[in-house]
Design brief:
Layout (H helix, E strand, L loop, with lengths): L25 H16 L3 E6 L5 H10 L5 E7 L5 H11 L9 H17 L3 E7 L6 H10 L3 E2 L2 E2 L1 E7 L3 H5 L5 H4 L2 E7 L4 H14 L10 H11 L3 H17 L7 H14 L3 H7 L10 H9 L16 H48 L1
Helix pairs in contact: 1-14, 3-4, 3-5, 9-11, 10-11
């Protein structure tokens, strides 16, 4: 409705995950690097967790959209499946007939399918979305599937994507064998204020918007304050903001325009009390009200340990952590490139070997 009014060729803030609109924040880039690294390794589990709406499914769709031709990928979104049910679903996703077959039959069919893929120079990838819904015994069943091997190489690799609740599940004492199969894991956090602005501008530009002055800085601040940097909430709010602008014939948006829409959305869709509950700091956790107050006056929210102690010099530690994260990101990117290069080299040598062998047979 508002697309033509603002010079857009598509909806920039639709709720359905779309790999075409994938925005790579620092954490999203790291998650994608882990997925690509996992693919290059061809074994083990990659685990990506994050709060609701932080972009896990979008990352998965983006990965599948650019996957190599020699990988046969399947994706399942899991309700609470039993071990038998998950085997049946995995088999179905790999186009295996499940009618009237026992679990033993399905496992044998899966093995035959995976071995056939390997014989043709391909391998299988399973993406499990909403993995936090799976019981422990079902996750263990997925681990057992990773035991299918041919010539010492695993026939099936799995990526698990889930909400933060997946983390304590994987930390359970009886999940040690699964944890040993995890080659990398990452937790997606909401976007910060700078990333939120860049996210909005990126999506607008990707949808054909030529303007960079559609929103004032204070309007961006209001959007971030309300959405907390969660991409799905940003999409919901921004769709309503643009519709509001179209109906009111606004050429640009200031903070008052955005707040008007926020008030409407709060009444219809969100619970303001829940958001407000996130902001106050329980006085019982503060070691010193005076220290907390002075920290707030300095323009930085207080950081409090579980024991109630206020952390001093938080900026120093934040800067150190950011430098460490950047260094790790660079190392991962270098390792991914190196692994991809070696993989291509090995494929080329294998092709040469097959060609020479065929010539010798003739």
């Amino acid at each position: 409705m508002y697309e033509s009014y603002y010079g857009l060729n598509s909806k920039p803030f639709q709720l359905t995950p779309d790999p075409e609109f994938f925005f790579a924040s620092k954490l999203h880039k790291r998650a994608m690097s882990y997925l690509q690294y996992g693919l290059s390794q061809g074994e083990g589990f990659i685990v990506i967790t994050g709060d609701i709406g932080t972009g896990k499914t979008t990352i998965a769709n983006s990965l599948l959209d650019n996957i190599e031709a020699d990988i046969y990928a399947a994706q399942i979104v899991t309700p609470k499946l039993s071990p038998d049910e998950v085997i049946k679903m995995v088999a179905s996703k790999f186009s295996i007939d499940t009618q009237g077959k026992t679990k033993t039959d399905l496992l044998e069919s899966l093995r035959e399918f995976l071995e056939h893929l390997a014989a043709t120079g391909k391998r299988a990838l399973l993406l499990v979305d909403e993995a936090q819904n799976l019981p422990l015994e079902t996750i263990e069943e997925l681990r057992m599937l990773s035991n299918f091997q041919h010539a010492g190489k695993p026939l099936l690799q799995s990526f698990l994507l889930g909400q933060a609740e997946l983390q304590p599940i994987l930390r359970a004492p009886n999940m040690e064998q699964f944890r040993q199969r995890i080659v990398a894991s990452c937790h997606l956090a909401p976007l910060n204020i700078e990333e939120t602005c860049a996210y909005i501008q990126y999506r607008l530009e990707h949808a054909g918007c030529q303007r960079t002055d559609l929103f004032t800085d204070t309007a961006f601040d209001a959007i971030f304050e309300f959405t907390k940097g969660v991409p799905r909430k940003i999409n919901t709010l921004m769709d309503r903001v643009l519709l509001f602008g179209f109906l009111e014939e606004l050429e640009s948006f200031n903070v008052d325009n955005v707040k008007s829409v926020i008030e409407e959305v709060q009444e219809e869709m969100f619970t303001p009390e829940a958001d407000a509950a996130l902001e106050p700091i329980d006085k019982q956790t503060a070691n010193s009200e005076n220290v907390a107050q002075s920290t707030r006056e300095a323009g930085e929210p207080p950081h409090i340990t579980p024991n109630g102690n206020v952390v001093q010099d938080t900026k120093y530690y934040k800067d150190m952590l950011e430098e460490l994260v950047d260094a790790l990101d660079d190392a991962i990117k270098h390792k991914v490139k190196l692994t991809q290069y070696i993989d291509k080299l090995l494929k080329k040598k294998y092709q040469t070997y097959v060609r020479l062998k065929n010539e010798d047979d003739k």
